[in-house]
Amino acid sequence: MVYRPESVWEFSTSKNITFGVGASAELSDVVAEYDAGSVLVVTDEGVADAGVLDDAVASLDDDSYTVFDGVEPDPSIGVFEDALAAAADVDPDLVVGVGGGSSMDVAKTTSVVHAHGGDVLDYVAEPTGGGDSIPGPGVPTACLPTTAGTGSETSPVTVISLPDEDLKAGISSRHQRPDIALVDPGLTVSLPPGPTASSGMDALSHAIEAYVTRRYDAKPAPDRRMDRPDYNGRSMVTDQFARTAIEQIGNGLRNAVDNGHDLDARRQMSLGSLMAGVAFTNAGLGATHAIAMATGAVQHTPHGVTVALTLPEVMRFNATSAADRYAEIASLLGEDVAGKGRNEAAEAAATAVENLAADVGIEGGLSSLGIGDNDVAHLAERASQLERLLVGNPRRVTRDDLEAIIRRSL
C-alpha cells in the first residue's frame, strides 16, 4: 500500500480559557452559566489543608458544592473509583477539578465515566483495558490549576496508576478536555519551592518536546477524521504556543522558586504552563516523557524531577535531527548563540536546561532518585513500549537508544 502523508492538522483546546490573577473568582459565574444545582469539587487533602481550596471556591455558597478530597499523587485506579462513587452520591451538574494534574485528571475522567457508565478501565486502551471509546461529552467540567506544570486544564489525557502491575495507563479522548479552564496565578503562590521547581521543569519539557516533535505532515494520514490522534504533530500554531512557553518559563522559574510571592514570576509560570499544555496536547511529546512515564511507573519517582533529569540527554540524542530547533530553544532560554554552529548551539540548549534545573535545586542525575545500572535495561524496555509518545520523537529511537539515554542520565 502506498504511503499517504497527512496533509491537514487539527487544533483543539478547552472551550474557554480565562487567565489572570482573580480568575478563580469567576467560578460562581461558571456555576450559574451551567445552571449547576449540584457541584462536585475534586481535590486533594494538601490543597484543602493549605487553604488554597477555600480561595478557589470562595465565590460559591457553602451549601452549593460537595468536596471529594481523596486524590493522591499519581492517582491509582482506586482513587478514580472513589471519585466516581462520590459523583454517584451527588449526581453533579458540574465537576470542578482544583489542584495539580492529578486532581484535574480525576475530575475529567469522573465527568465522562459518570455520564456514560461503565468502569474506568473500560476506556483504557487494550490490552490493559477494554479499549472502549468515550461516546460523547461528559458532565461539564471546570479546572483550576494550583501548580504551573501539567497543563491538564486543557488536556484530553488522564493518567492512571495501576500499582499491582507497575504500570501507568492513560485515557485519551477529546471529550475529556475541560469545558472551562480558570487559570489564576494567585492560586500558585503558596506552592513550596520543590513542587514549584519540578512542575515548572515539567512544563518546560512539554514546550520543548512539542517544539521539536515531528511535523503533522511527517505522519501517515488517517482513514477518517475520527481516527486522527490527539497528538497529531507540530504545526505553525503549536510552534507559537511552544516558543512563548519556553520563553516565559525560562524567565520566570528561578524567581518563582526563590520568591513564591513574586506575582510576576508566578504569572509567567502559569502562562508558560498553560501555553505549553496547549502546544503538547496538540503536537505531541517524545522520548523524555516515555522514559519518565516508565520510570515513574516502575520506580515511583516524582514525574517533574524525572523529566528534568532526563531531558538534557534526550535533547543531545535528538540534536542530529533537530539542531536548528534546539538552537532556537537555546536563544529563547537566554543563551547567546550568535556565531555558533548548529551543533554547538543545540548543545547550548541542553546545557541551558541543565543549568536551569540545577538553579532550582534539581541535579544529581537519575541516580539521586535511587536508579542504578541494574535498573536501566528494564526501564528502557518499558519506555520502548510507549509508542504513542515515541512516535513523535524527532529522531527514530530504539530500545538500545533509550538504554543509552537513561544510562547517560544517571
TrEMBL record:
<dbReference type="InterPro" id="IPR001670">
    <property type="entry name" value="ADH_Fe/GldA"/>
</dbReference>
<dbReference type="InterPro" id="IPR042157">
    <property type="entry name" value="HOT"/>
</dbReference>
<feature type="domain" description="Alcohol dehydrogenase iron-type/glycerol dehydrogenase GldA">
    <location>
        <begin position="15"/>
        <end position="185"/>
    </location>
</feature>
<comment type="similarity">
    <text>Belongs to the iron-containing alcohol dehydrogenase family. Hydroxyacid-oxoacid transhydrogenase subfamily.</text>
</comment>
<keyword id="KW-0614">Plasmid</keyword>
<dbReference type="Pfam" id="PF00465">
    <property type="entry name" value="Fe-ADH"/>
</dbReference>
<protein>
    <recommendedName>
        <fullName>hydroxyacid-oxoacid transhydrogenase</fullName>
        <ecNumber>1.1.99.24</ecNumber>
    </recommendedName>
</protein>
<dbReference type="InterPro" id="IPR056798">
    <property type="entry name" value="ADH_Fe_C"/>
</dbReference>
<dbReference type="Pfam" id="PF25137">
    <property type="entry name" value="ADH_Fe_C"/>
</dbReference>
<keyword id="KW-0560">Oxidoreductase</keyword>
<keyword id="KW-0809">Transit peptide</keyword>
<dbReference type="GO" id="GO:0004022">
    <property type="term" value="F:alcohol dehydrogenase (NAD+) activity"/>
</dbReference>
<dbReference type="GO" id="GO:0046872">
    <property type="term" value="F:metal ion binding"/>
</dbReference>
<keyword id="KW-0520">NAD</keyword>
<dbReference type="GO" id="GO:0047988">
    <property type="term" value="F:hydroxyacid-oxoacid transhydrogenase activity"/>
</dbReference>
<dbReference type="InterPro" id="IPR039697">
    <property type="entry name" value="Alcohol_dehydrogenase_Fe"/>
</dbReference>
<feature type="domain" description="Fe-containing alcohol dehydrogenase-like C-terminal">
    <location>
        <begin position="237"/>
        <end position="409"/>
    </location>
</feature>
<dbReference type="InterPro" id="IPR018211">
    <property type="entry name" value="ADH_Fe_CS"/>
</dbReference>
